[in-house]
Structure formats: structure tokens, C-alpha cells
């Protein structure tokens, strides 16, 4: 298992993203769309924060799925999805994680 994890090289960033997402979820909990009345700035901020939170959750789910897929493939070579290139996946995930972390930091700065 740790061998598979070491292949990815961005677990620390993914963990950091998870922590940022948790804090963002805490900020958004209990706040409903329209809670700020006609204040467009706050409503836009909340909408953007929710969109980024959903994107971050999707990235974490995508990573979990790929990790599970790789574990299953290591147990049964016939299960391997040949369309999934680990190097390309790592690069794409690293880019998505970096971008989302920056977006969350911007949201914090605007709060």
C-alpha cells in the first residue's frame, strides 16, 4: 500500500487540500444561497467558494478512485485499465490540486 502511495508523489499536497477543504466547508456550513440578501459581492463569493469546494471534493474522489483502481489492478492484472497512464494522471492531479489550493487561498483572502 505504501508502495502505491509513494508512486503518486503529491500526497502531502492532497492532504493539504483536504485540510483547506475542511476549513472551507466549516466557513460555508449553515450559510444558504441568498443568505446575504441583495449583497451581490457576498453572494458571488459564496457561490465561488461552493464551486471550488465541489471541485476539490471531485479531485479527492478522483484520486481515491484511481488509487483503488491501481490496487485492484495489482491484484488482478486483467483488471488494469490500460487507458489510464499513471504519469499523466499524476501530472494532471498535481496541476488540479495546485490550482484548487490557490483558489481556496484566494477565497480565504477575500473572506
Automatic annotation (TrEMBL):
Molecular function, one GO term: nucleotide binding
The keyword Repeat is annotated on this UniProt entry: yes
GO biological process: defense response
TM stretches of this protein: none
The keyword Repeat belongs to this UniProt entry's keyword annotation: yes
Pfam families xrefs: Rx_N (PF18052)
Recorded coiled-coil stretches: none
Residue ranges of domain Disease resistance N-terminal in the record: 4-75
Keyword set, alphabetical order: Nucleotide-binding, Plant defense, Repeat
Protein name (database record): Disease resistance N-terminal domain-containing protein
Amino acid at each position: 500500500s505504501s508502495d502505491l502511495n509513494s508512486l503518486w508523489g503529491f500526497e502531502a499536497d492532497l492532504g493539504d487540500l483536504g485540510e483547506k477543504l475542511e476549513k472551507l466547508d466549516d466557513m460555508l456550513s449553515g450559510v444558504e444561497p441568498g443568505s446575504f440578501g441583495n449583497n451581490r459581492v457576498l453572494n458571488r463569493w459564496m457561490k465561488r467558494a461552493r464551486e471550488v469546494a465541489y471541485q476539490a471534493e471531485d479531485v479527492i474522489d478522483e484520486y481515491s478512485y484511481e488509487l483503488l483502481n491501481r490496487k485492484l489492478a495489482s491484484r488482478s492484472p486483467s483488471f488494469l485499465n490500460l487507458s489510464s497512464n499513471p504519469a499523466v494522471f499524476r501530472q494532471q492531479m498535481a496541476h488540479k490540486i495546485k490550482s484548487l489550493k490557490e483558489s481556496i487561498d484566494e477565497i480565504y483572502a477575500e473572506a
